[in-house]
Structures are given as structure tokens and as C-alpha cells.
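Progress narrative, work stream C.
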Amino acid sequence: MTTPAIHDPLLGYADWLDAIARDERVLVTVERPDPTCAVLRLDDPDNHNALSGPLTLQLQQALGALCADARLASIVLTGTGDFFSVGGDWQMMQERAHSYAERPEGTTGLWRWIRRQFGGIARQITGTEKIVIAAVNGHAAGVALAWALNCDLVFAAEEARLATAFARIGLVPEIGTNWALTRRLGYARAMELVLAGGTLDGREAAARGLVNAALPRAELMDHALEWCRRIAKLPEHVPAMTKPLLRSAADASFEQTLLAEEYAEPNTFTTRAHQETVRALLAKQERASDGR
């Protein structure tokens, strides 16, 4: 059961973290369709998968375990029910963010939570060698939208609503949203979306390039899992090495990108997958030249 201490606004960061860790509800679930793929699901549909303290901590712990699993090639992040996640938990915001003046640590406790938990999950998504796929099944807002946009592939249900309403509630884009929006949309279009407090459905988001594709909700998970199967068929090192190369290229000069690729490519030549492919291609060429 939830302990009353969770709702004590005067608890410092460390004590509050201990309190939410004792919450016995299961708010995040993990499914394993096969040994190479995991589905990580925000599972508090009665609260629209809002990012309460316990849900966020469980997500961070589950994601950490999956990132450490050497068998996995891909992880699908999605939500239960009609919502991906409405984003921040309003009660938690009021209890924790709005009462900072009453705690000796001031805003630094809030900073720790945002950096270590909200930002920590974003770093897990972007830093792991696994390919992380967002399957945005419904409404997505705030930090949850940031996590989705920081994934390597993003697929959305056509009826999903992606809300960038930061300005309407007196906030600014957070947890990597500025990075993701400007790279996917460009500066001017990102600014327009943020200042307008825009909400895009899945089709609009796909048309603008904010997500990779929009699909009927009934087909969304099958599509995400099909990508998991595609990734699993690749030589193990290819997605693992490609991910950091592509992510660093967005902020690197041409010369820096070229240098990273020059160090990476020689390693791939030594892999069995590459060598077997070359032998097969040479054999095919030889048969063609012999008219066979």
C-alpha cells in the first residue's frame, strides 16, 4: 500500500525516495515476446499512466535491468489503456515542486529528482546500446512525451495526441524535448509548436516528421514488434555501434563524425557476419561469370 509519507511535502529528497520505493503497487510491467525483445509498459491506466513518484522509480529500475540484459536487442516503451501517459502527476507537483520553500534543501531536491529520475530515464534510453522503440498508443504529454521523442524509433497510433502544451501551464520544454523537437522539426517549426501549445494527432505528427509513422491503434504493437524482429536479424554489433554514431553526429562537425566512423568501421570488418556476407557475394559473382 502507498505509505502516508509519500504525501508529506516536507520530506527531503532522499527520505522521499525511500518512501516511494516502499509503494507496493505494480505500476510498470515487463513482457518478453522473445529473448531479444522486451515490452516495457506504463501500467497505471486508472490515472492515465501519470508519472507519479512510484511509477517513475519503477520505470527507471525496470529499464535499468533491461539495459543490462545482454540478450536483448530492443525495448518497446508503451502505455496501458487509451493513454501513453498524461505526463507529470499534478498532486506530486503540488506536494513537491510547489512546497520547496518549506524544505531546508529548497529547490535542490526538485533538481535532484528531475536530473536523477526524469533525466536519468532519458539518459538510459539514449545511452543504452539497445534500440528503444516508442509505441505511443494514446495521449502523450510532458516528460512522457520527452521520453518517447528521445527513443530511437517512434511510432504513434493515428488517434494518439502528442501535446506540447508547456507554455499554457507556465513551463518550458524539458528532459531533452528541445533537442528532439529542433532536430526533428527545425528551429522555427519547433518554436511555433511550443509557443502555440500545440497538440498533434498521430497522423499530423508523422506528416511533420515528429514520429516515424502513424498506424491504427490495433496495429501499433504488431508494427513495433516487427521492428524488433528486424533488429534481431541484424548482426548484433550493427545496431549497437550505429546508435552512438548517429546520435553523436547531430552535434558533431563533419570531421568529428568522419573520425568516429573511421574508428568504428575497421572493427566491423573483423566480424563473422561481414566476412560471411562478402564470401557469399563473391561466390554469387563467380557463378554469374560462369553463366551458372
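Work stream C, second folded protein:
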Amino acid sequence: MAARVRKKELQAQLATHDLSKVLALAARVPPRELLNPLIGSLCNPDELCKWLAVSALGVVVAALAEQELEAGRVVMRRFMWMLNDESGGIGWGVPEAMAEVMAGQPVLADEFHQVLVAQMREDGNFLELELLQRGLLWGIGRLAQVRPELLLQREAPRYLLPYLASGDSEVRGRAVWSLGVLQADLAREVLAGLCGDPGPTTIYATGRLTSHTVGALATRALSISI
């Protein structure tokens, strides 16, 4: 009964599209009680609801890890399993959630950041579905906002470059955005060639989805690159 009540309570707050209300719930409720409903909400067909769940998971898993670090590790391993073919699922929203957790929890970032990089690599745990790549590339940019040194140590910019040629404008755009956050000078020539790209893309940040073109993001990335 309690689990159903929490799920309904969470769904009601997500439906408001107000991040502050979702985070207030996350601050009030014990982390373990919201964990499963939030993970389930990663499949919400309402895109902004999904993103708000991603933000809340960052808070909830960080709080869980503060209470017991191993519990945070268990969640991260669960995320990894959800992206495994053997899980029988797709893993919608999982790369985003992993990145948001690592953005707020330095120990888990140190231990699991290489998983995100491996998911970009064809010789690693490459994610083939473009819908998953969209989330992964947002995750690279999100982690880069807080802990760029971890990604630079793993040569993340080099593995972002192939995504600039993707036929999916969301993938291209989020790869461009991530390269800009990482201030990756090696991509300047390719980014310059994308400045006229009219493909639409969206970027999520602090409760809002904003629309861009790939070209606008490439121009911005060039302006902040080394």
C-alpha cells in the first residue's frame, strides 16, 4: 500500500512540471521509498516528467549513498544491468540518470564515470539505439559540467566526434553541446562545419527543456572552446 501511495504522490508532482515540487518531495521522503517509483518514471511518455525524474534521482541516490555508500553503488550497478541485453529491457533514461547521480556524488563519479565513456565506444559497451545515444550524450555533457577532468582523462572528446555525423539531429546536437562543455579544441574544424546545421535539438537543464538548432550549439561551442 505504501509503495502505491508513494508512486501516486510522485506522479502527481511530476505532472506539475515543477522541479521544485519534485525535489521537495525527494527531500521529505526517505530515499529508498522513492527510488523504485523514480526509476519507473524514466519511461514516462511525457518527456519533461522523465527529465524531472532524472533530476530527482540525482538527489535521491546521492542521499542514499550518503547514508550508505554501498547502497549507492548497488543502484549504479542496477542501472548498468538495465542497459544490458540480458536484462530484457531497453534502459530508457538510464544514461541520463547515471550522469545526474555522478554529477552530485563524487565517489560514485570516480568509480563509474568510465561506464558512460565505454557506452560511446564501439570497442566498449556501445549503445546502438539512437534514442539511448541521445540520453548518453546529454549525460556526458552533464557530467562534464561538474567533473570534466574525469571525462578528459578517458579521452571522451575523441569518442564524441563520430556522433557529429549522426543522422539524428538530437544526437548531433547533444554531441556538439558536450564538446562545448568540455572545451574540446580537437573538434573545432568539425564544429565549424556544423554552424549552418538547421537540425533541431533539445537540452535539459534544471527543470526546463530548451530548443536549439545544431548550428546554434556549434557556434556557441566554438565561442567557448580553447
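The longest strand covers residues 200-205. No further action is required on this item.
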